[in-house]
Amino acid sequence: MTADGSIAKSYWPELVGRRVGEAMQLLTRNQPYLLIEVIGLNHTDDLTLEYHAQRVQLFVDDKNVIIYAPQIG
């Protein structure tokens, strides 16, 4: 459930092409409990293979634009 009582999303393809700040605002608006990690393409060694039910990883280019659809995990 989200803050407004609706069913929580787990995948956000509409965020591809948006800037990190805007994406973070949209993600936390209704799901403020999400743990958001921003990962640059040159920093993929920071990735973990562990599943986390409240984590969303934002993969960004060098201009902080989302390049892959964020999802829970």
Major β-sheet profile:
2 strands, parallel
Summarize the amount of helix as a percent range: 10-25%
- CA distance, first residue to last residue: 17 Å
Uncertain segments are: none
Mean pLDDT across every amino acid position: 89
Tell me, briefly, the overall form. Answer: globular
Radius of gyration: 12 Å
How much of the sequence lies in strands comes to 15-25%
Spatially, the strands of the biggest sheet line up as 1-2
Number of helices: 1
- Per DSSP E runs of 2 or more residues, the count of β-strands stands at 2
Q: Helix/strand/pairing class, anyone? A: alpha+beta
Please provide the ordered H/E string of secondary-structure elements: HEE
Which helices and strands, and how do they pair?
Layout: H1 20-30, E1 35-40, E2 55-60
Observed structural traits:
single chain; 73 residues; alpha+beta; two-stranded parallel sheet; 1 helix; 2 strands
Can you put this structure into words, describing what you see?
It is a single chain. By secondary structure, this protein is α+β, with helices and mostly antiparallel strands. The protein has one helix and two strands. The relative contact order is 0.28.
